[in-house]
Structure formats: structure tokens, C-alpha cells
Amino acid sequence: MPEDLNQGLIDFLKASPTPFHATTSLCQRLETAGFRRLDEREAWHTEAGGRYYVTRNDSSLIAFRLGKRPLLEGGMRLVGAHTDSPCLRVKPQPELQRHGFLQLGVEVYGGALLAPWFDRDLSLAGRVTFRRDGKVESQLIDFQQPIAVIPNLAIHLNREANQGWAINPQTELPPILAQVAGHEPYDFRALLAEQLTREHGFNADAVLDYELSFYDTQSAAVIGLNADFIAGARLDNLLSCYAGLRALLHADGEESCVLVCTDHEEVGSCSACGADGPFLEQVLRRLLPAGDSFTRTIQKSLLVSADNAHGVHPNYADKHDGNHGPKLNAGPVIKINTNQRYATNSETAGFFRHLCLENEVPVQSFVVRSDMGCGSTIGPLTASQLGVRTVDIGLPTFAMHSIRELAGSHDLAHLVKVLTAFYASPVLP
Predict the structure, then answer these.
(1) Based on CB atoms within 10 Å of each CB, which residue in 171, 200, 310, 327 is the most buried?
(2) Residues forming the annotated binding site for Zn(2+)?
(3) Whether this model's pTM surpasses 0.85
């Protein structure tokens, strides 16, 4: 079972180099399982026992399974995660031709660890908007092959490299794509038009705009002497998206279950499709009658906000509170912060711990050191938007926000098991 889940995650990561591709991958798996797509611009006709999903901006998704029990009686079981990861985004006019090399200007998206981006085989993917036959359309593209690299400067020319140096994202991060002769200006949009033809078989009249990200072409893999780890890009937070999907697909039909995978968490979630925007509330209000039914249902509901946690690193153990150092392969972590950087309280933490104990899933706790700042998640944002009770949890990982992160190879099965039990739970606190 863990092996099948891990391979499924590896396949999902490979198909999901950007939030757009991740959302498409989720949609394909949902449709295969019998979920029906809803359009926000149309009237909805849903029924008890029905399975549905809706997307926004092609990069956020809400999937739900309406249970046999009325929403007003049983509430909703929600699992939340996010589709985006720190990366390098191509600028609108990116062409750089310097010393015979073609490069692209990039902007850093989110709080990326920049050093690991050097000396990696990079490809490019995302959404392209274009004009064809007088109409504006959009399509996803993925070059798949390594087409770029950001070479390090040799240590002979940077003797202080191993003492640490500040990376300048403006001057040191533009990837190299090719050598070019002469000074004829290069047209990046022409390259995108060619890629649209290769992938989709049509000719665009003009490429109008795009949202494109570089990514590492090395596949995720189970690694380690005893296959203890899974290494790959975008584990934060596609790992949680995949775990939530697997749990939703195995949910029984009694309770109403929701999976929320939103974009833009890494940059604050403040967007039309982010957790600090109206997407989730607008979808849920369409499922409930008018009046006080919405508030009553929300107060009978619970959100599990699933986002990766910091595992205690053997080389940097002093970065953790001595009593709160989550270990890889020791189960999901309940994340707690008294300043509300996480939305967990004693009731929601107790309920999640109870679920783990009932289903023989190991569980851990994380509290940041009192002399360090604390990150946050979609949990507090969703809780403040909806007023829904929330517990923040996640699987422990190393190298969060690196181009290649590391998790325990047994933990995905732990998370899927407890989330499946959560979706089936007949009683919430």
C-alpha cells in the first residue's frame, strides 16, 4: 500500500510542474472517479450522493461529495491544501542576449531557497494566452525536456562561495537557454507559438501573454539505503493535495466531504482563487439554502488544513524546540502556535489526535522555538473567512521551499489513512 501511494504521488508530481497542471491532474483523476464538473457561470443542480468539482483560474479546485445526511444536520468535513510552490517565473519581456548567450529574466515566486536552483536541468511550463481566429484562448504548455540551466560561478572566481553569499535574483538567476550568433533580437513569444503547435496541433495568430515557471526535470523518487525517503520537487504542498484526493476518492457516501486546493498560498493567498479570497465561501453558499443555514452548517463543520511541517534535521536539531522535533516516518504533525499563525485549538487538536489513535496512525506535535518566527498556512485564513473550526496539520519534511524536498516514504500512507477516517467520521467536536 505505501509503495502504490508513493508511486501515485511520483506520477502526480511529474504531471504537475505548475499549479495549472496540478489542477488539471486533479480534475482528470476526479473525472475518472465519476465526479462531475460544475461551471461557476451556470446554474448548479446538485443532489445527495452526488460528486462534483469546480475550478477557478485553472489553478484552484474545490471537489465535494454530498452525503446522504443533510448538510444542516451533519455539517461538512473539509480538507484544505495548496497547489503552488516557490519557483522562478518568467518576466513579461524576458529576452536577454549577453555575450553570445540567450537568457530569460525571471522573478522569484514565494520564499524560495535560491541556491539549489543552480546547476539543475530546468524545463518550462505554465499557461499561455493567445489569439486564434479572432478569439482569445488559453492553453497549458510543458516543454518537458531540459531547455535551460543556471550555472554556478566557479569557486576560483568566487573564493567566498563556501562562506555564504547573498544571491542577487536580478543578475544571478536568469537561466541560460542557448548560444546565439549575431545581435538579431530573439522573440520568446515565437518560441511559445511553436510549442503550442507541437503540443496542441494548431497555429496561434499571436501569443498575447503567459504565466510560465521553470522547474527541475529530475523525477521524484523513493530513495535511501532502506527506501526510507521520498525526494522530489513541490512536495510542499502537492503531497497534501494528493493525500486529500486519495482520501476523498475512498470516502463513503454518508457524510458530506470537501477537498479545497487553492493557489497563491506561497505569496499570501490574497487573490480571487486563493484561501484569503471568496472562492470557498461562494461555492459553499451555492450548496445551502438562504437564511441562517450557512452559519449553522459551518458551525457543525471542521477543516483539516494540511500543509507540510518542519521535521527535525539531524544537522540542525537546535532549530527546533527540544520537546517538539517531529521525525520523518513518525506520522502527521499537529501544528500549534499561540499567536494564531496556525488555527489549531485544543478541541480540534484533540479530535485529530483521537482520529489518529482510533485508526492506529502515529501522531506528533510541532511548536516553533519561542525565539524564532513562525510560518503560516491556509488554516488561519480559511478559519477567519468562514468561521470554521480548524486544525493545522502536515507531514514532516526537510528542505522546505528547496527545488527538491524530502519526506518520509511511510508518512503518505499515514496521512491518507487518517484523512479517509476524517471524511467518514459521523461525529465532529
Answers:
(1) 310
(2) 82, 156, 401
(3) yes
Binding residues: 82, 156, 401
| Cα 419–chain centre separation | 17
Residues of the chain with CATH 3.40.630.10: 2-85+233-424
Strands 309-310 and 396-398: parallel
Residue 416 makes CB contacts below 8 A (sequence gap 6+) with 5, 243, 246, 247
Helix, strand, or coil here: 229?
A: strand
User: Tens digits of per-residue pLDDT, 199-219?
Assistant: 999 999 999 999 999 999 999
Question: In angstroms, what CA-CA distances link 98 with 102, 121, 186, 290, 390?
Answer: 7, 21, 12, 61, 51
Residue count of the chain: 429
Distance, in Å, from the CA atom of 124 to the CA atom of 248, rounded to the nearest integer, reads 31
Task: Return the CATH number of the domain spanning residue range 87-216.
Answer: 2.30.250.10
Q: Where in the chain is the domain with CATH 2.30.250.10?
A: 87-216
CATH 3.40.630.10 fits 2-85+233-424, yes or no: yes
Rounded Cα distance between 416 and 353, Å, is 15
Tell me the DSSP string of 363-420: -EEE---TTS-----HHHHHHHHH--EEEEEE-EEESTTSSSEEEETTHHHHHHHHHH
